[in-house]
Amino acid sequence: MSATARRLCRVAAIVLAVALTGLPATLSANAAEDNGPRIVGGTPADIADYPWMLALVSPQGQVFCGAELIAPDVVSTAAHCVQGVNPNNIYVVGGRSDITKLTAGDSVTRVERITINPAYSTPAAGGDEAMLTLRRTLPYRTVPLAHAATDAGLYAAGTVGTVLGWGRTTEGGYNSAQLLKVDVPIRSNAECTTAYPAFNAAQSFCAGVPEGGKDSCQADSGGPFLVNGRLIGLVSYGRGCARPGYPGVYARLGT
Ligand code: 4AZ
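Above: the input record for the complex with 4-(aminomethyl)benzoic acid. Below: its predicted structure, written as tokens.
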């Protein structure tokens, strides 16, 4: 057997092992910085405070999006995270603040079915929402959801929300090993439209500080925007990360 063939066999063996155990071989967060910027401009968060917070992990062990447990076997995430993705290639990981410290157990499951919001086309058009039905239940508390009747006021400009994720800590930078959080105020629809002419105010909102420096970033998509502990939005898109004048855009879950 040639060296190349031997290498291919080794790769195949690893892939098979991953398939059999249901676990990615390794989970990499790349360079995890202890003192550098977080999410972008955030601070470490403890999974114990957000037990429903989940990571979507590729077969290569890379976190590619955030997600939330909304029922014992149902997960909410962004449509653009899972559109066109084979459900067999998504590992749903819970219960960990440091996503690289993965062990076998209750915290990893696979996806039975992906359901994309039928109205979804692109993030900018709004409705960037999908649900994943899990192959088995996860033993965590579910996230409290926004209520249409009572939570409409939560979307008012100036309301400060919390965003969580293991995504990039700088635009174009590396993911974070540690779960991070950042607080950002919701901007007016006029400000969102100035930054993003295609902004859909009926199905989205945007949040950030005018000077930039605090934001969600790539691989935070599908993660939560929380107000008063309730899920009111999902990380959807933005021009770069934490740029002045370009707030992050979130799928609007309530009214
Ligand atoms: C992304 O690429 C992405 N600053 C998500 C959120 C933001 C930017 C990019 C918001 O998934």
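Notes for the reader.
Residues 1-26, 28-37 have pLDDT under 50 and may be disordered.
Residues 154 and 227 are 7 Å apart (CA to CA).
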